[in-house]
Amino acid sequence: MAPGIASPQTPARRAWRRFRAHRIGFYSLWIFLALFALSLCAEVISNDKPLLARYEGHWYLPIFQNLPETTFGGDFETPTDFLDPFIQQQFAKPGNLAFYPPNRYHYSTINYFAPVPNPAPPGATNLLGTDDRGRDLFARLLYGFRVSVLFALAVTGVCAAFGIFYGALQGYLAGWTDILMERFVEIWNAMPTLYMLIIFSALFSPSVWLLIGLLALFGWMGIAAYVRAEFLRNRTLDYVRAARALGQRNHIIIWRHILPNSLTPVVTLIPFEMAASIAALTSLDFLGLGVPPGTPSLGELLNQGKEGLDAWWISLFTFGVLATTLLLLILIGDALRDALDPRKQIAEVAP
Amino acid sequence: MSLLEVRNLDVFFGARQVVKDVSFSLEAGEKLALVGESGSGKTVTAQSILRLVEGARLAGQINFAGRDVLTMNTPQLRALRGGEVAMIFQEPMSALNPVMSIGAQIMEVLQLHKGLTRSEARAGAIAALERVGVPEAARRIEQFPHQLSGGQRQRAMIAMALACEPKLLIADEPTTALDVSIRLQILELLDQLRAETGMAILIITHDLNLVRRFADRVAVMERGVLVEQGRRETVMEAPQHPYTQRLLASRPQRDVGAVGAGCVLSARELCVDYPVPRPGLSGLFRRNQFRAVDRAQLELAPGETLGIIGESGSGKTSLALALLDLLPSTGEIRIKGEPWRADDAATRRALRRTVQVVFQDPLSSLSPRLSIARIVGEGLEIHEPGLSAEARRERVAQALLDVGLSEDGATAALLERYPHEFSGGQRQRIAIARALVLRPDIVVLDEPTSALDVTIQQQVLQLLGALQRKYGLAYVLVTHDIDVIRAMAHRVIVMKDSQMVESGPLDEILHHAQNPYTRKLIAASLR
């Protein structure tokens, strides 16, 4: 008889319930989302400009305004350096106010007024120390994490979209089309990816978009293979036959019947793809072939750590951030795989 | 003392109890049938005897030849399994190791349990295969499972199980995956081997015909409880428990309406060919044609059921799919006088609504990610696009009511549910509703009840009969089960090796069959 649960259980909701039952993966997802949300607000958390300032009766929003030093009684028209002891004195005067973010450095801020030579060890001024150019390590890590995750999302998104499209075409058309497209994938797979990336990075001026394009170019085959296999299986199932017997049009059969039932492996792969993209970006940055100089990047920090082993804090904290990120993603992926495992779904249905 | 004595057996999976307080015993040389529908706990009970159920907690007592199985340590258990108690399974293809030859697998058992040398084991393996009636045993032992036919595979399984001369053989649905004509042979083989060796047989089955034919005693299980047991004649003739009575009454009853005049579907010279790769290197470039259906002829009147019966591989399903135009075919098919393969797509699509289909497996024939409303309503979206959403829901609800999905008529609550929330029988009803919502003239039923339990089978067949009388539907009923044919068909086509070997009215086929194959098929139906 029909089960006594009040609301209908969509397959997605059932999967979510199983995912939630997987405690480690569930908490990993929340921790990852929280970290990502924090990093999206990095400008408010770690910045060298006050969030809000009051100077001689006027209110300012220095984060959004470009204020020359003359505004606060300085001598030059240059943008204000709020770490300058003179500016800080100005704000210390009665009636003037400045609310600073929790960490007073932007990723690009060079602290010219640091009490110790660069790289500075962790201390009161720089929570996690500075890198070899005197930039705050915490700020670099925070922004670097954001760049990595956004980069991974973009690469994975492009890969998934193209991979699904390619795999769906292969699987649904089958026959010769499938064979030819599969041979192309095999040739493409055989290309020495890293070598190609190095050549392309040397040919073009480095930019994040170029890297996204390049990594996506060599990253979609895995997803396409899974989608192809699912399509090949699903197109022969009885519910697709039944839809054809109803006279349903091909594109609706693909869109409504086959595609939703073929996406399980894609969803499962996404966290792993993201982890792979982050690792790829980090290694390219480590080699100096990645993002343009100045962009906060975990790989570049790792390279600095390798160059100056005395500055242990650079290696240690960067490694910590990288390992945590990859671990969280893999734990999420693990839980997703369990949640979407068709055998477990069947086990739950069976009496 | 009995050979096997199970006393107050409980089996738990976590907090869930799947077997409750089951007690039975088995004497040497006796044949006991454990009968029940899927989920009744009969397989778990049987596997508990060898403690094969993983992750289960067993309570109670299992005594085999005076020893308590539940307190045995691992070496004792290993000696028991395969040595004194052997087991054969339903699907011989998955129970045999596909990368080992048949001989190697039988030899392994002999070497393990009897400590024979390689050459002795080889001779033993050949003898074992000969004993179960596999021809050319010396050659067969080099072959791999995929090279044997289904019946031979099951024989090889039995040979493997019997190689060590067990005292008890547990046979879990040993004939379900086999064709009807082979089923009988396997049962006769088991009986003959029992007579020779004096072993006891515990057979697990849902097939009452088999019980009638084979067992000395019967134990009936329902939802983990052993509700009735006794001598076969007693249980079969005078069942005490209501569940047993229901089970015995579940044989499909014939209740069919009169055939109308005219012809809704006709096929002439219908052939279906599959391309198969040629053997050897030339297979890379050239393909041979395998003819799955050879020049089939048929006609179908309104309100008539045409049964197509045959064993697996006989081409009956290909014929059904060709009638639906889901498989490319040659020859002529006319639907109410109109040729199926009309040139313009619009006519073809319009014709689609007159021919609908119900498949065998209700799990795979419903898209798992669509709600019932969308599954059943899909045909209306296509063929009656003018229908408003309200009207469509109304029609879907009416179709669900027609197929008896809910007793109280409250179908509205079911519309937003998903296939996995229903049982197998209910899912099959939904599949029938999807076919019916378009008010077709012809429904092709491809093994509509073979994936269902016997009591559900009967209900679904009754429903199909009632719907036929109500709407004057014509059925093309494809099945391997002669009981289903008996209950439903007006006329019958018998297929073998892609050919229609015989066709005619039901009574004529049942009682005056001309073709020897037909007679064999009817005789083998274990009645």
TrEMBL record, chain A:
Location(s) in or outside the cell: Cell membrane
Cross-referenced SUPFAM superfamilies: MetI-like
UniProt key word Transmembrane helix: yes
ABC transmembrane type-1 domain segment(s): 145-337
Keywords: Membrane, Transmembrane, Transmembrane helix, Transport
Signal peptide (UniProt feature, chain positions): none
Transmembrane segments: 24-45, 149-174, 194-227, 266-291, 311-336
Main location as per UniProt: membrane
InterPro entries on file: MetI-like, MetI-like_sf, OppC_N
Membrane topology: Multi-pass membrane protein
Keyword Ribonucleoprotein carried by entry: no
Family (UniProt): Belongs to the binding-protein-dependent transport system permease family.
Protein name per UniProt: ABC transporter permease
Organism expressing this protein natively: Uliginosibacterium sediminicola
UniProtKB/TrEMBL annotation, chain B:
The UniProt record lists the keyword Membrane: yes
GO molecular function terms listed in the Swiss-Prot or TrEMBL record: ATP binding
Record key words, sorted: ATP-binding, Cell membrane, Membrane, Nucleotide-binding, Transport
A family per Pfam: oligo_HPY
InterPro entries to which the protein is assigned, alphabetical: AAA+_ATPase, ABC_Ni/Peptide_Import, ABC_transporter-like_ATP-bd, ABC_transporter-like_CS, Oligopep_ABC_C, P-loop_NTPase
Membrane topology: Peripheral membrane protein
Domain ABC transporter: 4-248, 276-522
Gene3D superfamilies: P-loop containing nucleotide triphosphate hydrolases (3.40.50.300)
Location(s), subcellular: Cell inner membrane
Family according to the record: Belongs to the ABC transporter superfamily.
Full protein name: Dipeptide ABC transporter ATP-binding protein
Organism per entry: Uliginosibacterium sediminicola
Lineage: Bacteria, Pseudomonadati, Pseudomonadota, Betaproteobacteria, Rhodocyclales
